[in-house]
Amino acid sequence: MFIYTKIGYVALGGMLCAGVHGRKEAMAEQKRDYYEVLGVDKNADDAAIKKAYRALAKKYHPDMNPGDVEAEKKFKEASEAYAILSDPEKKRQYDQFGHAAFEGGAGGFGGFDFNSADFSDIFGDIFGDLFGGGRKGRGSNGPMKGANIRTSVRITFEEAVFGTDKEIELTLKDECKSCHGSGAKPGTSPETCQKCGGKGQVFTQQSFFGTVRNVQTCPECNGTGKVIKEKCSDCHGSGYIANRRKIQVSIPAGIDNGQSVRIRDKGEPGTNGGPRGDLLVEVIVGRHPIFQRQDYHIYSAVPISYAIAALGGDVVVDTVDGKVIYEVKPGTQTDTKVRLKGKGVPTLRNKEVRGDHYVTLVVQTPEKLSHEAKELLRQFDAATGDSLNAAKNVQGEKSEPKKGKGKGIFRK
Ligand SMILES: [Zn+2]
Ligand SMILES: [Zn+2]
């Protein structure tokens, strides 16, 4: 994970967000008030500031919004605001001097140092679960966890409900056996980078109103602190070999479309002895011809005859557990919703706990009736309110003197 500073990114963990580029003139841009950025009151306490940042970071994190420049900007802005407001000393300076405190102006102490901000804690909270706990690296040439890899797998509606095992195939990078991951020709070893002295970062001093100290990933060694003179011929200096691998994915019962299964240590290899990243398998659930799903509930519609709606009776209802008999009450109106308790989707936490299945009973109007059935229906109608002749009766009344109602409604 890389967090934006005024000039580039500082490594916080194993995830790479974007390229590194200098932006020395950023300080001259119109900057929003840090409290405004986080949407908190000036008197907000630590907990409120942290909470506000957590929400913003989660929403705008580049990994959640790939390619979204606006979200990335918001993420950086919020991260910067949090870096300042979460540090009591910097907060005090900001409260006193505003942005000038960090621009080498009055009371300025130079560019803020994200490394000292308490990100490990909050990122552990926010991204620990989401991204496999990419923890703050000790400088960019310390051990870092490898990046997570994302892939997807398609499953059926029923597989999502009851869980399934799938095999996926993908290309994984493994450490090159010839050079043991160093990337240097066997017999040689990488040399310490001259430009950064092996630190992986370069510091640029800049004179503006004062001295600004900017941290940038070393362009010579890309932050590794080492330079390879003679490359390993097997891996061409990368230190890795790509291998096609089959991986078993156990998909839990209750998973929903768009959710991901994490497989630990099947991501990109770590650097400098760090652990591998994780593999995140997004589950894409196919549509079902009958069932719809909302959270842990299942919805479907079942046609019932007019006779069953009127007299009551048993109907067969399809559920994910198979066919069940449901007893329709006499006098059921169309679009009546009934609940089949516990026939929904198992919850991810406990598959014994299930949602419900809601069935909409739709009364079917017969379209093709035999002569005999029609005759019986007329007799039935005559016995139950004579609806077939109700309109005629109104037309008959129309010619009579009105009592101030129904005028014009039934014209023609
Ligand atoms: Zn190699
Ligand atoms: Zn270097």
Give structural notes.
This protein is α+β, with helices and mostly antiparallel strands and 412 residues long. It has helices at 34-38, 46-60, 69-85, 88-97, 119-131, 157-162, 306-311, 371-383, 390-398, and strands at residues 2-4, 9-11, 149-155, 164-175, 191-192, 201-207, 211-217, 226-227, 240-251, 260-263, 279-285, 292-294, 297-305, 313-319, 322-328, 336-340, 357-364. The chain has a four-stranded mixed beta sheet. β6 (201-207) and β7 (211-217) form a beta hairpin. The N and C termini lie far apart (76 Å). Residues 1-28, 105-118 and 124-140 have low confidence and may be disordered. The structure holds zinc ion (2 copies).
Key structural traits:
alpha+beta; 4-stranded mixed beta sheet; 9 helices; 17 strands; elongated; disordered N terminus; binds zinc ion
